[in-house]
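Weekly sync notes, structure subgroup
Attendees: PM, AL, DS (notes)

Item 1: joint prediction request from the bench team. They want all two components modeled as one assembly rather than separately. Inputs as received:
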Amino acid sequence: MLTLQEQTATDELPLSYLPFISSIKKRGLKLKEVACQGYPVGWYGEKRKSTNRMVKVICYYLDGTINLYMRPIEGITIIVLIDQMTIASYIDRLIVPVPKANGTDYMGSKLQRSSHESNSIKIVQPDGPSFTLDDGNTVRWGDWKFHVAYDMRAGIIISLASMFDAEKENFVVAYFDAGEFGFGLCAVELEPSKDCPENAKKMPNVICIFERYAGDIMWRHTEDAIPGKKIRKVRPEVSLVVRMVSTVGNYDYITDYEFKQSGTIKVMVGLTGLLEVRGSIYTHNDQIKAEVYSTLIAENTLGAYHDHFFTYHLDLDVDGHENSFVKNNLKTRRVINKSSPRKSYWTVVSETAETESDAKIQLGYCLIPGGSATSPLLSDNDYPQIRGGFTKYNVWVTPYNKSEKWAGGLYTDQSHGDDTLAIWSLRDREIKNKDIVLWYTFGVHHVPKQEDFPIMPTLSTSFELKPTNFFQHNPVL
Amino acid sequence: MLTLQEQTATDELPLSYLPFISSIKKRGLKLKEVACQGYPVGWYGEKRKSTNRMVKVICYYLDGTINLYMRPIEGITIIVLIDQMTIASYIDRLIVPVPKANGTDYMGSKLQRSSHESNSIKIVQPDGPSFTLDDGNTVRWGDWKFHVAYDMRAGIIISLASMFDAEKENFVVAYFDAGEFGFGLCAVELEPSKDCPENAKKMPNVICIFERYAGDIMWRHTEDAIPGKKIRKVRPEVSLVVRMVSTVGNYDYITDYEFKQSGTIKVMVGLTGLLEVRGSIYTHNDQIKAEVYSTLIAENTLGAYHDHFFTYHLDLDVDGHENSFVKNNLKTRRVINKSSPRKSYWTVVSETAETESDAKIQLGYCLIPGGSATSPLLSDNDYPQIRGGFTKYNVWVTPYNKSEKWAGGLYTDQSHGDDTLAIWSLRDREIKNKDIVLWYTFGVHHVPKQEDFPIMPTLSTSFELKPTNFFQHNPVL
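Output from the run, pasted for the record:
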């Protein structure tokens, strides 16, 4: 991982480097309006493992905007050696127009008040919140209890989460992995009443906890089939959210863990902030004849197709340490005799990983994917795919191993993919009735669109862990 | 469709029918605790079309609960002719235990206050709502304008929805189809502050409109790459929801149309209420040796596997009447020469329905499925599947035709599937640059679980219509 000090030093390096100063002058730009950012270089098949920590630096032009990412200065390649903090390679290849500043601003002060602006709307709790925060880390809310920790790489770590039934309990641990920059390290201060609602508590400045009420219905029924009676019972949905925002350069990642009274845990990642764009000679779609793997989102501005994958390390101990992974398949059963006028039914065929099982129902927690159980589009032999081999499947199950903590490997900077979940799993270990870890990867293939310019509306994706024949009845009555 | 009068008369018919009274006595039950409900009979391959409107009546036992659906009286088959309002067939086959009343209640009065109960939480708007309701049907909110109508079968109909950009506009019409009972006819009165939040307006008693604020972030960015500046800009997400609840017997369907400031329309259906269960001899899973196509959700109570499919009729006129349907496929492109150290990239290949197109970007609205673009599990030749042939694909596109309004056909009661979307589409009409209708079907395969007893936590499913290169930039700055 890059430390914040290393990142700052890297970003300032080109500004006093003579060839770079000359490149800026040659483009007719003002040096004081230039800001630079370092990016990991990756690995593209070089045989020898690099012993140098290095980054590629990309510079942007401000001059009338604060949205630097929409104004990349193209044609210059700068490689910085981190440990020496020197420029190891500098090439000024060609001059490409810098996209214009016009329309890139997203700050209110420069914009006229939008007609969309609503009257103020607030979530209020006159009697205060219903959750408590013991010793700064342990949250209790209704029957839920869990521990919130903070990790420089993972960001929020939820552990020892349990919801008590008559006699059952369960534990959940989730890690969030953010390769080279660290989700924890990039956590940003949350703005009151905007990043989190009015009723939120901060825990330190980068994590907030609040009760969420969106006007949704947890369950309801209107009964009019009972003669002489009119029954209506509605229970509004109130849940508890633990939120963190990590800004990794241009992108802002919102991470929510939502605990529901029904025992469900919903995990959500929202993507917002600024696209990483390339400057380009194109000002209109008709000019583009070659494949650019991008959308022209504004004049001279290409937004490249790219992926975001998120892997959660779910160390579920449902009703004890020994767990199994059961896959439920829905299967059509054809009616072959005259036992029914129907021609088919469907049923649930449960399959316990590795060996068959005659379990009729699944007891425990069920993973419910959201809309984006995305699989990779890169070829298996492409270097980014080798390094991110863990994205090949959405679900992996491994026996718990203390050293297998990060799906992308302990060190990801310029990694060759030899320490990933995909490699560990080749050992094909026993996973039935073991202390197992469920790794769930989901994500988005992001095809940028004009509406993402100059700032992206939040694109969110989620999954749920839902109790399934775990409680003996609806736990919220 | 069955009228409310017909439904009430049907439900009362068995209670004065002597053979039924004797069946109740034989089971040791009290007649005054019995309540009955009529259900459509469907079609199971009979060659001749029935000219009779008929329903099957199922009776339930109250005696200590108001949750009749958890206490079916099994073993009795009653067929009622609607037009004559007489019992045409009555068979008492066998006696099965009635599931017990214990634990089936969902009303607060009988339950002790749950430890989950939160302090009060409210959405407040001190300056009142930001939307207006002209002539009782036209809603204006920010740049959005649309018309809300009410149909006995479809429920809410949103029409003439538009969001004004500089010069563009678009229209959306959506129908909601609810076969035999009518979503509109079954709409129930909404409970203030529970079915809809405190800031909602009712429009009549069965539709509510409110601004939704859940503490979510519409877009944000923290910028620290500009030397000497610290920038943070966060815009909270506030949307407008139009909601209706339809209770069809035991099930409660929540229908939300959510209009976002970003131009996105999110359509959500929530399923709650009471499962339809069967009484059974089983009290424990170990006793079940045969396939029962069900989960034993409580003693003597089987919850059958079943499906819910919802079809939306989306008559989108994006920037005019003539529209085309473009399918965007993400494709891997292998690098075959040495032009890049990479081995692959991915790109977007657009395909206009019927003929190829070289369009580089999609202009217009994009349909984003939620987690449940479910396909049917029944065999094609099974009668329910023939009648519901429109569920075979999630997406259908037809040229607009005034008579093609209901995906399941104008008359669905005992229909033979000869007037459905699947049949109309066999004509394979031209759809390029036409006034087209997009039919989107989504749903859930519901495998009941213990947590659905005695009342189901809301299971929701959704899709979005998202502007994609339609506006020239993020419309909410």
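Discussion: The longest helix of chain A spans residues 4-12.
Action: AL to compare against the crosslinking data before next sync.
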